[in-house]
Design goal:
mainly alpha; 292 residues; 14 helices
Amino acid sequence: MTNISFFIDQVMRYPYLQQALLAAVLVGIICGVIGCFIILRGMALMGDAISHAVLPGVVVSYMIGINFFFGAVLTGVLTALAIGYVSQNSRIKDDSAIGILFTAAFALGIVMITGLRGTGVDLWHILFGNVLAVSRTDLWVTAGIGFFVILLIVIFYRPLLISTFDPVMAKATGIPVRFIHYLLMLLLSLVTVASLKSVGIVLVVAMLITPGATAYLLTDRLPVMLSLSAVFGVISAIVGIYFSVIYDVASGASIVLAASVLFGLAFFFAPKQGIVTKYIKQRRYKEASRAS
């Protein structure tokens, strides 16, 4: 209880903690929502690819003195387009194209970072995140991206829903499936950029996948899944910031670990899909069969 009081007192006292908490909550919401579609479409590897492939764009942005948002989004979109182009114009399948291009882009980014040694530019926080260093400008960028992403999901909810569960039917009904796919890639790139300061490139894929996967174990309905995923993202953000402040540990890693713990609880104790729940039901069924 003392730690909780201390945490609340620190948040109320220091504006940078307020900004960090707000940024982490926003990231939890938008990662949770977009992550549901990534999971249902079986595109977890694509999320990993884009989150890593934005690194060269971030480095170039810092080199030419512009906001990293522009370089990261451009690189993410170009990578998504390149993956589609390679898989459609060769015998290489999607998963192989993703592996080739995202590792190449990430390696290029690492080389560029190491080449900046001695310039006073430190980009390692982009890799691992530091939500406690989020500025007011970063917070507004995250809020703007979040609003834009949620707005587009609301506008294109029906095409996203149909193309996610039945692409063949979506094509038959005239839904532009390819456009929806690349729209989702754009949103994924934006969400990745919004998450860079909070959890970093290395860990952002966890925030994209884990809350959605947790929600997926608890419900079969997409609207409920979207809501639960956003809630789990928010809980992970608050708990992660709490442990980061109280125990002076890495904020991004703390947020991801909190999300992982929630997934573990759902994995074992979900009402229908939980391992422990299934075991208990099986035992009860066996005991009932013996009794009868």
